[in-house]
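Appendix C: a fully annotated inverse folding record. The material below is reproduced so that readers can follow the format used throughout the book. The structure is listed first as tokens, followed by the designed sequence.
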């Protein structure tokens, strides 16, 4: 089995960043992509992706079998929302594992929510998505998108054995299309794919991440505005 590198791993934080300045693009204006409103926020941040990541996502969609499309749940995530998600799930992990040291709690947390300082969604290069048919009906992928390791008994892991043959085949369909255009998967979450962020750079052995943390679309004064 290949090693799963958690987002809390020091190697992720150690990746250099070479911000390319690509803008965030509003997916609500991209007719070819189907968006789901489950993660919708007040300013539409969730519906944004860096231009290069979006271009690759559209290429990947063209590689899907006839009649199958992507259903996108979340792209960009503002830094303060990432911090809130991380702190909330870390509290859940502390309650479930009261004897574990802080570093282990951070690692357990990062299996489901990224530490804010390396968060792929905050770079605008990560996307949570599933597959649907022509009428928008979701295909079986083994768990709901965003199912926790606890509620899914680990079936959220991309290579989990405890899913149906059909779900495994659908995960392979996603993998083939998204990997072919340069995305990488976070192996603890079948629905989470990214391009250009630090995790991507580490897995693809790129010299640096192309996308650093960026400000929400409403706060940007043209181009990409680094937040830190
Ligand atoms: C839980 C999910 N929505 C998610 O995005 N997790 C990853 C690891 C993240 O926080 O970047
Ligand atoms: Zn994600």
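Designed amino acids, in order:
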């Amino acid at each position: 089995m290949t090693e799963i590198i958690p987002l809390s791993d020091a190697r992720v934080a150690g990746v250099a960043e070479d911000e390319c300045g690509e803008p965030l693009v509003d997916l609500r204006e991209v007719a070819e992509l189907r968006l789901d409103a489950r993660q919708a926020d007040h300013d539409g941040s969730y519906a944004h992706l860096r231009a290069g990541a979006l271009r690759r996502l559209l290429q990947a969609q063209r590689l899907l079998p006839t009649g199958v499309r992507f259903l996108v749940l979340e792209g960009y995530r503002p830094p303060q929302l990432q911090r809130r998600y991380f702190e909330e799930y870390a509290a859940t992990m502390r309650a479930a594992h009261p004897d574990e040291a802080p570093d282990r709690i951070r690692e357990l947390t990062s299996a489901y929510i990224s530490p804010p300082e390396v968060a792929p969604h905050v770079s605008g290069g990560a996307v949570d998505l599933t597959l649907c048919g022509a009428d928008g009906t979701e295909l079986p992928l083994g768990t709901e998108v965003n199912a926790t390791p606890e509620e899914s008994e680990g079936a959220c892991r991309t290579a989990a054995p405890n899913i149906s043959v059909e779900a495994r085949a659908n995960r392979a369909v996603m993998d083939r299309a998204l990997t072919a255009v340069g995305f990488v998967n976070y192996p603890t979450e079948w629905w989470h794919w990214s391009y250009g962020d630090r995790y991507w750079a580490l897995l693809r052995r790129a010299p640096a991440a192309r996308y650093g943390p960026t400000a929400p679309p409403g706060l940007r004064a043209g181009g990409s505005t680094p937040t830190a």
